[in-house]
Amino acid sequence: MEFGALQCKPKSPSCATCPIQSDCFARKNDLVNVLPVKEKKLKKRTRYFNYLVCVNGDEILVNKRKPGDIWQELYDFPLIETDDNYLEAQEQFLTMLKNNFGNTCTVTPLEQKKHLLTHQTIYVQFFALDNYIINFNQNAEIKWVSLSELDELPQPKVITNFISSYSVN
Fold this sequence. Notes:
Elements: H1 3-7, H2 25-28, E1 45-53, E2 55-56, E3 59-64, E4 75-76, E5 79-82, H3 90-101, E6 106-116, E7 120-130, E8 142-146, H4 147-152, H5 157-165
Parallel strand pairs: 1-7
Antiparallel strand pairs: 1-5, 2-3, 3-4, 3-8, 6-7
């Protein structure tokens, strides 16, 4: 914990024992009862990630995450993010699934996880994807890698945990 958090508590500052009280801005300006101002906590965002695990022989489909979001430049699986749990947002999920992987694709639920970050709660559902079509021109971040290459790629913890708990073979 930092010094200010221990010494300069908003409701009961410890000015008498403070080693830097002679240089204290709040004390010099009679603002001890006002400073420090406690910042509001960030609102935690809830997200729903539906990962599609596509295996073709000894290869697996991976997605390189783009800059500007969590886990940038790390590798995960092709993803459909929905507004709610896939069962509650089934129409949205199926529409996005068919648009990205063809009308004949099928999914089988594999595993669910709850992944907590400091500013986000992510509900993760893994699916096996079968009978799919991939347009690599439309999805430039997606590529096939061997299962041994997969181990060498940087991945979010939730993906690493899934891979170690689920046999992709």
